[in-house]
Fold this sequence. Notes:
The complex is a heterodimer of chains A (218) and B (483). Chain A is an alpha/beta fold and 218 residues long. Chain A has helices at residues 2-13, 35-48, 61-72, 84-95, 108-117, 167-173; strands spanning 52-56, 76-79, 100-103, 120-124, 127-129, 134-137, 153-159, 163-164, 183-187, 192-193, 201-202, 209-215. Chain A has a single domain, classed as NagB/RpiA/CoA transferase-like (Rossmann fold, 3-Layer(aba) Sandwich), CATH 3.40.50.10420. Chain A contains six helices and twelve strands. Chain A has a six-stranded parallel β-sheet with strand order 1-12-7-4-2-3, sandwiched between helices. In chain A, a hairpin with a 7-residue loop joins strand 10 and strand 11 (201-202). Chain A is globular, with a radius of gyration of 21 Å. Chain B has 483 residues and is of the alpha/beta class. Among the domains of chain B are: 50-146 and 202-302, NagB/RpiA/CoA transferase-like (Rossmann fold, 3-Layer(aba) Sandwich), CATH 3.40.50; 414-477, no CATH class. The longest helix of chain B has 21 residues, at 26-46. Chain B is globular, with a radius of gyration of 26 Å. Strand 9 of chain A pairs antiparallel with strand 9 (276-280) of chain B. Iron/sulfur cluster (SF4) binds at residues 267, 319-325, 347-348, 378-381, 383 of chain B.
Amino acid sequence: MSDQARQNMLMRLEGSGGRSTTVTLPQAVLEERTPAERSKELQTMMEKVRTEVHRIEPVKLLDKLAEIVAGKGIGSLVFAADSILGKNIQQKWSETKGLKLIPYENSIEEFKEELFAVDAGITSTFAGIAETGTLVLWPDQHEPRLMSLVPPIHIAILDEKRIFHNFREMLVKEKWNQEMPTNVLLISGPSKTGDIEFSLQYGVHGPKELVVLILEEQ
Amino acid sequence: MENPNQNLSSPKEKFVKGFQKSLNDPQLRKNFRNASFALKSMRQTAFPDEAAFKELQELGHRIKMKALKNLGPLLRQLEQKCQEKGIQVHWAESTDEANQIVLEICQRNNAASVIKGKSMVTEEMHLNHFLEQHKIEAIETDLGEYIIQLDHETPSHIIAPAIHKDKKQIAQLFNDKIEGAGYTEVYEELNAIARKSLRKKFYKADVGITGVNFAIAETGTICLVENEGNGRMCSTLPPVHIAVMGMEKVIPTLEELPPLLTLLARSATGQPISTYFNMINSPRKEGEKDGPKEVHLVILDNRRSQIYQDEHLQKTLLCIRCGACLNHCPVYSRIGGHAYNQVYPGPIGKILAPQMNGLESTGGVHNASSLCGACGEVCPVKIPIPEILLRLRYEGVNKSRSSKVHEHGTQQNFKESMAWKFWEKIHASPVLYKTNSGLGNLLNSVMPKNAGPLKNWSEFREVPQFAAKSLHQLAREKGVADE
Ligand code: SF4
């Protein structure tokens, strides 16, 4: 069925397209700004859509995290156990009780029940986009895709040096057309909807809260 | 599915009855007035500078035109790239074929429950209904879609499917249809009810089905635009993901994506970007812990390739389904989406539905336009909607066999064609013309005002009077030579 359909469909498209059109894309890299400037723009944009953004010195990361965990009453956190951040987190909370650390070690088929019960997830990011206030995630086997989706709170760590001006600049500079992972995600705020009388509501299916920790350039 | 018009005979009667019903429903009119106003102002804030919008619009138009002009080769390239990475590609000429493909995948995976992301193309297929006939539960998970599915309705807007309902109606619906929900009009609580109920569905679903916003030929990437996260759930959680796309969704390169994404997000809801932009490149790889093990891409034709064959009408296929033309349409904002009786309502529906389903079968929706031009101006990819509407009106009476338009030449009306024949005769003969133009004045006194052929018009409007003297007479009196 599909083969015949394919043939028929492609045949009907043949020769009727007409003259081709040319496209001139605007300059990819529009302006050179410092990471701090980009980071502030990203922060402003993300705060407009109810994202909690903190710019911190890299050495203060774990303290800030502890503050957030305590402040929000997070009881369980899913994390990537084998990353550097993961190791530091494990060390930090090995002494203190009160936070249950849950590594994403098994495939979702076995892990689903546990994941759906977790309070928060913490992930790294691939990059950020200043213009639209966007986090870019490249999930992999250490930090699987659902970590940033299923738990009600998503905490993301972003390196200030990795903030690009806009989407296009990032695509071009990072040569995405040559290689991309299984899934790439652009995240610009917590999950939201306006489907009932255009009243903006956060946390409809994905995270209700998004917390971004930007590591300042030293 | 309940259809209040099903006993009526012709599509045209259905359409007329449909919009009369909408016009007489004050609640519905209020809901649509509010919705159009809200969506229009959201878009306006996103495009504060008209010149900048025009520039971006031109770029969007060119990118999609380039894609369209190379549609065949791009689809081949997309297929090849997807297959290289393990995405299975299927081709469907008709919605029946597409449904069958989806069903076979579901059955092969013993699927009992399917979760769906918002997708107009699966509405085109009436997929939910089809799957349910085969004992597969298909749950819409976009909040708006979920609401209307509970009430056995179809979307009334392509972006905001439940805007015809206000919170009271939704509160009642949740109270009646969701176990343990209770009655509440508080937005937060309504949201929480839906979240809780749908989480259970996500949890146990066997297959996730979504549409496709853009497919990138260069990299074989399926892109989904959404705010809620349900599209991510559908494409990540179940072991199988099926993405269904209309064949016009392919674009050549990754670099051409950002301007289109910007245009879509800003035109639809005035956002700089959607909350989630989800790019899918392959099924779960060895060692990865989540994501579907199978990813399928179904490419649907459903007369798109026929629309494509006409160089002018093919611009219909540039559409990125932003909904801006609906929000700016004076007709849509008064009658709402359901009155059209078509999957795609509003201006885009008026040009797409007749070409997909036939000029006759869609009841003349392409005539329901004041040709004010607003739709063409706001369209982010510059589709000349008013021109296409005129062209379709012409196709309605065009009997030529070379026309590619489905059901062309079916709108010929006996009275109308006789009138034009008469007109042609008179204008070909100076004597007849003179006699005829003098006749108007005499008719003033004998023409009945609220009855006869003018009744429909004169019931609501002043009947214009024929002038006492013809233009020729007046000109002669002023000393202009009349040849
Ligand atoms: S026709 Fe244009 S304005 Fe209307 S939905 Fe399509 S892209 Fe948007």
